[in-house]
Fold each of these.
Amino acid sequence: MASPFSVAGSQCPCGSGTAYGACCAPLHDGQPAATAEALMRARYAAYATDRSDYLFRTWHPRTRPSDVAPTPGTAWLGLEIVHVAGGTVADDSGTVEFRARFRGAQGEHVLHETSLFERRAGRWVYVDGEIG
């Protein structure tokens, strides 16, 4: 699926301050995320760019819902990483606490979640999250 951020010079929606082509685009195209935080950022960017294929591939099969498509009409407005524990290149699990701002049919909201990530077959995957 084509992304609206496919121009290499466009800033990545994950908030890293880096161009999309050098940040989350390579992950969306198959490069593995080096850390849990990198996967978190790439998953946020996948929501923002309507890359449900990436969301499916990076969701642990044990916890993945049958439909991972983003809610139609949702606009993702910004990501703030609050706290990261583990999830480094030397770890097999990690958590990332974040706040994601979005606009939906009911107005603007903030999703505040602590997400659990695991390394599975050498690749980071999202397991689940605790809203809070």
Amino acid sequence: MAARLEALAAPGGICVSRTVHDQVRDKLDFSFDDLGEQSVKNIARPIGVHRVNIASAGHSAHAKSSASVSHHETASSPAIVVLPFSNMSGDPEQEYFADGIVEEIITSLSHMRWLSVIARNSSFVYKGKNVDVKQVGRDLSVRYVLEGSVRKSANRVRITGQLIDVTTGGHLWADRF
């Protein structure tokens, strides 16, 4: 289970199960963000997940909520997450292809040293879910979200992508290929 929780954590972050949270919440000097129930690979039922908010150590819960700033927002490099692309082809076998496109984009973006890119394992917890990009930004401490879709019909492929600023919810860029 620890490996599955590690995959849900943002880079440099820590996620714990609800059981661990309940055991330590009053014994440690940091707060936790409830991420709700998460389905993870090879675990039969969804598990309650909490993100450890180490930045809140030494601060009251009120001070934390009124002055919360994510690590990535204060870092010198902007942070982005590439969400799993939607398979619009109607062919379930194309999921593999759509996932491969996302993996290629993540890999390419990771070569830009000035850009902090969230790992595939963290972004793929949103696969198949309708998400609020502002909430994704808060959950993963990123400012930018890249989302899109893949359509394959016969020997043609159309890939669309939209870059969204999570602070406004507005599109910064969109294109199709």
